[in-house]
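Make up an example, fold above all:
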Amino acid sequence: MAYNLYQVQAARAWAERIDKEQAQAEKFWMQQALKLQQATANNALSDTASMVTSVAPSGYTSKTSYLNSRLDRLESELAAERIRRGRVERELAALKTGAPLLNSPTLGSTTTKSTAPTPRSR
């Protein structure tokens, strides 16, 4: 058990180290963007003026980017799951009332084919 706890502790230490490194990298690139913005503010006719708009600091980090993309993906999965749940609930209600199911994609159509083998003609 102690060995497992050591592995967990080591994994957490590495995760913290990576977070710190990413924070330092983001801080560095924000400083670079600020320097570039100040340099172009002094020289409005320079060629780098067009780059300032694309690298201006916005407080938008890689973590928030990842979290927003994950949130969008989860919301789309939730919407799809709600559609499937609604379909299943309608089918369940139809089964309870005894109404026939019309081409249900989850349960198949209401008509069934006979799977018994047919006799061969000789």
